[in-house]
From TrEMBL:
Organism: Cavia porcellus
SUPFAM superfamilies named in the record: Lipocalins
Start and end residues of each Lipocalin/cytosolic fatty-acid binding domain: 49-191
GO molecular function (one): small molecule binding
Coiled coil region boundaries: none
Xref: Pfam families: Lipocalin
Keyword set includes Cell membrane: no
InterPro entries: Calycin, LCN2/LCN12, Lipocalin, Lipocalin_CS, Lipocln_cytosolic_FA-bd_dom
UniProt protein name: Lipocalin/cytosolic fatty-acid binding domain-containing protein
Amino acid sequence: MALDLLWLSLTLLGILQIQASGKIHVPRSMKINLSKIHLESNFNEDRFQGKWYALAVAENTIQNGSDSQFQMYSSTFYLNDDHSYNVTTKRHKGRVCDCRIMTLVPSYVPGQFELDNIKCYPGILLYTMRVSFTNYNQYALIFVKMQFKHILFYEATLYGRTKHLNADLKDRFIDFATFIGFNEENMIFHDPVEECIDN
């Protein structure tokens, strides 16, 4: 039951990698201060909304990116009147389409968001998302810090408006993730998929 609860809480947020075997990867120990993470200046909440595709991900749970079972997923940000986002994430898992919805509320600085109603997610003590860099119409570099009980999870994501990962975006992501403290073993570059994420 405890394992099921852990899986539910963390997969809802897209943080924990569970391989086909069902084995949970223990995260690599890292200490990252949010003040180290760049924040997009003059963040425009309206331009950021809409659909994004996850082109690349780095996480401290990923031990060998080349062997990862992760696939490309889409996240659609719907802007609400109170400046929060409803975020719908879709991915293909096994034979089913997995759809998760969460609400992110603005934090004390533009471009930083916290998980709404965090008490509804047992064990999750902290969830912060930062939009670090974006040009709104092509790419966005996102950083997430989450604490589940006493364990810290970190994620860097390269979002694209299309499923195409060009060399320039790949280099930007590698530089961003490396600066944060990830290494190549923690990185995944997704191949385009059609199942689920466009429906």
